[in-house]
Design brief:
Helices cover 79% and strands 4% of the residues. The protein has 295 residues and is mostly helical. The longest helix is centred in the last third of the chain and has 28 residues.
Length: 295
């Protein structure tokens, strides 16, 4: 409250919007939900006035959390959609993916399985998009370890709800992704075949995308933020175009760049013979998964 009073005296609307949000979170965590919603409303109004979309996004997510805690699931779903639209507006893929994932968890809790499936898969697609924009294999490994639990959660959801082949696909992705990325990026033969200019350009674009993402997050004016988002999307397109050219110019790189994990049908066709049983497994954080593959 004292911080809010200080920001108010200083005429710092951005600081005041943040203070209202924090006060709202405190009331929410102390089960004072009406007071929390009141402060969220004040924060949102200020953020909207000054064009701070990032703050609006944070307020929306806090409201979503409140609705979930109080069992108001339909309101929570609507608030998730508002939060997602704000993520899309500012091009925030990281939080967009995370919000879709959280929405999928809620839909699963509500037994709306098919809708949860769509959100889970869209979230994973966005995670993979982020991974593709990470040029260096050691960063890819760090990235994937960070999201490993998400893949495991999706796998458990698939198995629980009868999507066994999809579950197998995610398990193979989890087990193979880091190794395949390292193979694609570090294989000496492949590296020798990539023109230095292409590799340099790839690294420059990754650095540019990282700087632009920070710029979008820090920009408070909505008109300027929209311009930054447009430039960010243009740079992503340049990055994807560059990868396409690299694949065309180097067949070895094309075959190793982000290869797909093996599928059930591929195993049945090439690895498993009649009267044979193939066991594929992996160890999760708190359980083990096993798949039995036959012809």
């Amino acid at each position: 409250s004292k911080a809010a009073e200080c920001y108010q005296k200083l005429g710092d609307r951005n600081g005041l919007a943040n203070a209202y949000l924090k006060i709202g979170d405190i009331h929410r965590d102390n089960h004072q939900y009406e007071k929390a919603l009141d402060y969220y409303s004040k924060s949102h109004q200020l953020a909207e006035t000054i064009g701070d979309i990032s703050r609006q996004k944070l307020v929306s997510y806090s409201k979503t959390n409140l609705y979930e805690r109080t069992g108001q699931y339909e309101k929570a779903l609507k608030q998730y959609d508002i939060t997602i639209s704000l993520h899309q507006l500012i091009g925030d893929i990281t939080f967009y993916s995370g919000t879709l994932f959280d929405k999928a968890l809620l839909l699963n809790r509500m037994k709306r399985i098919n809708e949860a499936l769509v959100c889970f898969e869209e979230s994973i697609v966005l995670m993979e998009q982020l991974r593709r924009q990470t040029a260096f294999s050691h960063l890819k490994k760090t990235f994937f370890l960070r999201y490993y639990k998400s893949y495991e959660t999706v796998t458990h959801f698939m198995l629980t709800n009868g999507f066994e082949q999809k579950a197998f696909q995610y398990v193979e992705a989890m087990k193979a992704r880091v190794f395949l990325d390292q193979l694609a990026e570090e294989n000496e033969t492949v590296e020798k075949g990539i023109e230095p200019d292409f590799k340099k350009k790839q690294q420059q674009l990754v650095s540019t995308l990282s700087q632009m993402a920070r710029g979008i997050a820090d920009e408070n004016r909505e008109d300027k933020k929209k311009i930054l988002v447009e430039k960010y999307q243009e740079t992503i397109a340049q990055f994807e175009d560059l990868l396409a050219v690299m694949r065309l110019k180097n067949p070895a790189y094309a075959s190793l760049e982000y290869p797909e994990p093996v599928s059930v049908s591929q195993l049945q066709k090439h690895a498993v013979k009649d009267n044979q049983l193939l066991v594929r497994y992996f160890l999760g954080h708190d359980r083990a998964y096993a798949f039995l593959v036959t012809t």
